[in-house]
Design goal:
The protein is 39% helix and 16% strand. Helix 1 crosses helix 11, helix 6 crosses helix 9 and helix 7 packs across helix 12. The longest helix is centred in the first third of the chain and has 16 residues.
Length: 332
């Protein structure tokens, strides 16, 4: 299956290699920006307005800013019963919990998927970002798997979800190269647990009702082609299925970068932490270094920095992404 894609450009691998090869030459000395917050926001606004192209690199911090938090009140509301019974402390760790049976495990995953993939984010951060770039030549690469870019109205052809999608199943070994949409299954599994839709068509915990922490055995999801087990299409190891859509998006990313290689490009990194810097952060640094016309902007809460070597081409803003987007939209 992999040989089928050998003739296509692979933006994922190409940029990772570029980033890794460039990191040693960038050195360990870092900068946290050249000016104050308002000055840096003003510079970012100018770059968004004047750049020939914008490459958005988004990590988990963007969805957190949009209200898709994995702990606290939101977790207690939708997963409080699982927390009480199993001692699970947040949505992320629950994805790795060794549940006692498949009926319970898939009940958890139905909720996990639904409340992070099939509803809009509580805050309009993604839509505010779209307002800033909708008239620009842009492309998005993200490690997020919650589909919020598309829900906000971003062009699907300009999106590359590198790490998978909560809305897709795959076989455990991923060898058939195919993924399967899970929306219909998720809706059935939510109903089976006792969730009820409100007037807006969104599942809610029924008032005074009791939820089930299992689904019927016959609802355990299976591969529609041969009845085999399925798993989530989330990158965890080499069994992750890079399907046709994934390769098409990877090739589109490579093409976009090539077409704008020597132009005034804004590499806008939002909410990217230290877990997977090789996918977005390091490549953005590398591509900024090799293009004198490029600008790197890092927008992150408590983690906004850049290599000192590209400081003069960089913008660093420490803060909430939604507040920054709102500030720029207000100033425009």
């Amino acid at each position: 299956m992999n040989s089928f894609y050998n003739n296509r450009p692979n933006g994922y691998l190409e940029t990772i290699r570029k980033g890794l090869s460039a990191v040693p030459s960038l050195g360990s000395d870092v900068s946290f920006g050249r000016g104050g917050r308002e000055e840096e926001i003003g510079r970012l606004q100018m770059e968004i307005e004047t750049a020939d192209a914008i490459v958005i690199g988004a990590g988990a911090g963007l969805s957190t800013a949009a209200g898709l938090t994995y702990s606290g009140e939101r977790f207690e509301k939708y997963f409080g019963d699982f927390a009480a019974r199993f001692g699970i402390s947040d949505i992320y760790s629950g994805g790795f919990y060794p549940f006692p049976d498949e009926e319970t495990r898939w009940a958890w995953w139905a909720r996990h998927i639904y409340f992070n993939r099939y509803i809009d984010a509580p805050k309009l951060v993604y839509r505010k970002l779209l307002e800033l770039v909708k008239d620009k030549d842009y492309f998005v690469i993200t490690t997020n798997v919650d589909h919020q870019f598309q829900r906000a109205g971003f062009d699907k052809k300009r999106l590359f979800y590198t790490q998978g999608d909560y809305g897709l199943f795959q076989t455990p070994d991923g060898r058939n190269g195919r993924t399967f949409d899970n929306e219909a299954w998720v809706m059935k599994a939510m109903e089976a647990q006792g969730f009820a839709k409100d007037e807006a068509g969104v599942f809610q915990v029924p008032e005074g009702g009791t939820l089930s922490m299992t689904i019927p055995t016959e609802l355990i999801p299976k591969c529609p082609e041969d009845g085999r087990d399925v798993t989530m299409n989330l990158r965890a190891d080499d069994s992750f299925c890079e399907d046709e859509g994934w390769h098409r998006a990877s090739a589109a990313y490579a093409k976009f970068l090539h077409e704008h290689k020597n132009m005034h490009v804004l590499f806008l990194e939002i909410g990217v932490g230290a877990n997977t810097p090789v996918i977005i952060k390091y490549p953005f640094w590398a591509m900024t270094k090799e293009n004198p016309k490029a600008v790197y902007a890092c927008l992150n809460y408590n983690e906004a920095f850049c290599p000192r070597l590209i400081e003069n081409q960089s913008i660093c803003i420490d803060g909430d992404a939604g507040a920054v987007f709102e500030r720029i939209n207000t100033k425009s």
